[in-house]
Design a protein that fits this description.
Structural class: alpha/beta
Largest sheet: 7 strands, mixed
Bound molecules: zinc ion
Shape: globular
CATH class of the largest domain: Alpha Beta
Distance between the termini: 68 Å
Strand content: 15-25%
CATH architecture of the largest domain: 4-Layer Sandwich
Number of domains: 2
Order of helices and strands: HHEEEEHEHEHEEEEEHHEHHHH
CATH topology of the largest domain: Metallo-beta-lactamase, Chain A
Length: 346
């Protein structure tokens, strides 16, 4: 009897869980739109060409190298006499990738068959449409790319068939593309894709031409590596930069502006680390150490980011949207990786 009663009690408790969840879900959503902050307008220089009725734009980078965008994500492809080499397959562009390839292949009388896909890095938002191209495509990525995709075990992103550690020259249908890994940055597997015959470089999730980085420095997994990446990119000869994001291609000038933005952040972060006084935060919060640290670091981020936001508003789109979160991540790296401002107790 006792057992049966406790069983029933447990059943009732379990049955109540979905009911509570359902009630929560049916509550009306707050009027979010009414409470959102306003931001500075996007500078026209940040925007690219208009997308077509199907939601994509395809354009020539140079000769037989093309790029595709949905105005937020970018992929690239090279037409060759033996088929098409695709660079990344963002799911947001999805089936429009093949439509863009079909459009160009038909106009130029070349094959529209994708034979190779090069992965810039393993993230689903850049290669999650890979499986659309079937099983008989040769996929190429860094050794770490294979490890991470095997770990993630996502059927939309088959692991690469061909991997390399430092350099790989891809030769398809008389074309050559130089792939290189120069250390971890945005992710451990993010590579430099150089098109020596097209004066172009593809490096994804570092510099998003015309825009500040996405939240927390493009969610960089290795901040010193991400800070070093633009100089690595500039060491290559190229005129056109494919950054994987937003609606337009980049120039060397865009990379210079981006490097200056990051350098300005680092310089102001170092000032904040030695200037903002922690005392008032610890006085206010007493033994709640985390509350004091949170408020102290928020003040440092505000101190460091405010002049940079002012300087780049109208220069880089969304400077007022994401500069603070990027400042926070770089501040942590300046403090923890470089050890700047670290003091040993006397
Ligand atoms: Zn990424």
């Amino acid at each position: 009897m006792t057992d049966r009663r406790s069983f029933l009690a447990r059943s009732a408790a379990l049955a109540a869980v979905p009911a509570v969840a359902a009630l929560t879900l049916t509550e009306p959503a707050p009027a979010y739109a009414d409470t959102q902050p306003d931001y500075a307008p996007i500078p026209p220089s940040a925007l690219g060409p208009a997308v077509n009725a199907q939601g994509y734009y395809v354009g020539r980078v140079r000769k037989n190298l093309y790029w595709v965008t949905d105005s937020t994500y970018q992929a690239a492809f090279l037409t060759t006499r033996d088929g098409v080499v695709l660079f990344d397959a963002p799911p947001s562009i999805g089936r429009n990738l093949q439509r863009a390839i079909d459009e160009i292949a038909a106009a130029n009388g070349v094959s529209n068959k994708v034979t190779h896909i090069v992965y810039s890095h393993h993230h689903a938002d850049h290669v999650g449409a890979s499986s659309l191209f079937g099983r008989h495509v040769t996929r190429i990525g860094h050794t770490e790319n294979k490890r991470l995709l095997v770990r993630d075990n996502d059927p939309t992103r088959p692991a690469p068939d061909v991997t390399f550690d430092s350099r790989y020259q891809l030769r398809v249908g008389g074309e050559r593309v130089e792939l290189a890994w120069h250390g971890t940055n945005h992710t451990p597997d993010n590579i430099y894709i150089h098109f020596p015959d097209h004066a172009a470089l593809m490096l994804v999730d570092i510099n998003l031409p015309g825009w500040v980085p996405f939240d927390t420095f493009n969610i960089s997994e290795d901040v010193p590596g991400s800070i070093a990446a633009p100089a690595r990119a500039m060491a290559y000869p190229w005129k056109t930069f494919i950054g994987g994001h937003m609606g337009r291609l980049g120039t060397r000038g865009d990379m210079v502006v981006y490097q200056q933005y990051v350098n300005d952040l680092i310089e102001n972060i170092k000032k904040a680390l030695v200037t903002v006084d922690p005392t008032p935060f610890f006085v206010k919060y007493g033994n709640n150490t985390w509350a004091a640290v949170k408020a102290y670091q928020a003040a440092q981020v505000e101190y460091a980011s405010a002049p940079v936001i002012r300087k780049y508003t109208g220069v880089l789109a969304a400077a007022d949207v994401y500069t603070a979160s990027t400042t926070f991540l770089i501040l942590e790296s300046v403090r923890l990786d470089i050890g700047f401002g670290s003091q040993i107790h006397p």
